[in-house]
C-alpha cells in the first residue's frame, strides 16, 4: 500500500474516532442548510405538489369514470333494445353515447362509449363513421379489443376494401387467441382471401382453424370450405 493511500485511510479513521471532527462536519452541514433553506423548501414543496397532483388526478379520473358509467346505463339499455338513435343522442333526460364519449373521453367508460357508437354506425350502414369511431377505441380488454377490430373489418368489407378488411380480421384473430372467438375471425379472413382469389392462403387459414381450434364450432365448416377449395385448385391454376 502506498504512503498516500495509508495517509487517506488514517485520515478516515481519525475522522471516525475524533468527536471534534464529527462536530465540525455536522456544523458545516447545518451551515449549508441555513444558507440554502429557501431552495430546499422550494424543492420539497415541488415534490409534495407532484405527489399530490398524481393522486389527485387518479381520484379525479376515478370519480369521472363512475359518473360516466352512471350516464351510460340508459344509453346501453337503448342500445340493447335496438333504439339506436336514443342510444346515440339520449332521450331528453339522459344523455347519449355521443355526449359521453365527448365529455368523458379520458375515462374507461367514455372510451367504451366510442365502441358502442362504432357498433351503432355499423348497424346503420354508416361504415366510414363506424371505422372512425372504432379506430379511436383502445382498451386492455381481451375480448372487446379484438371485437372492435373485427367490426372494423366488417365495415371495410362492406366498403369493398378487401385489403383493410383482411388486415383487421387478422388483427382480431391474433389478439389474445382463444377457441371461442379467434376461429370466427379466421373464418372471416379466409372468406376475404377467397374473394381476393388467394385460394392457397385461404386454405392455410382454414387449416389454422382445423389444427389450432379443432374443437371449435367453426372447425367442421373450415374442413368443408378447405375441401371445396382443394377441389377448385386444379381449375384455378
Structure, described:
- By secondary structure, the protein is mainly α.
- It has a domain of 99 residues: Tetratricopeptide repeat domain (Serine Threonine Protein Phosphatase 5, Tetratricopeptide repeat, Alpha Horseshoe).
- It contains 12 helices and no strands.
- About 6% of the residues have low confidence.
CATH class of the domain at 139-237: Mainly Alpha
Main pleated-sheet profile: none
Strand content: under 5%
CATH topology of the domain at 139-237: Serine Threonine Protein Phosphatase 5, Tetratricopeptide repeat
Mind telling me which CATH architecture of the domain at 139-237 this is? Alpha Horseshoe
Class from secondary-structure proportions? mainly alpha
Per DSSP, the total helix count is 12
Rounded Rg = 32 Å
Helix content: over 70%
Shape: extended
**pLDDT below 50 for ≥5 consecutive residues: which ranges?**
47-61
- What is the string of helix and strand elements? HHHHHHHHHHHH
**How many DSSP-defined strands?**
0
CATH superfamily of the domain at 139-237: Tetratricopeptide repeat domain
Short description:
The protein has about 240 residues and is mostly helical.
Offer a few descriptive terms:
237 residues; mainly alpha; Serine Threonine Protein Phosphatase 5, Tetratricopeptide repeat
Lay out the secondary structure.
Blueprint: H1 3-17, H2 19-35, H3 37-80, H4 84-89, H5 97-103, H6 108-123, H7 127-135, H8 144-158, H9 162-174, H10 182-195, H11 199-212, H12 219-236
Helix pairs in contact: 1-2, 3-6, 5-6, 6-7, 6-8, 7-8, 8-9, 9-10, 10-11, 11-12
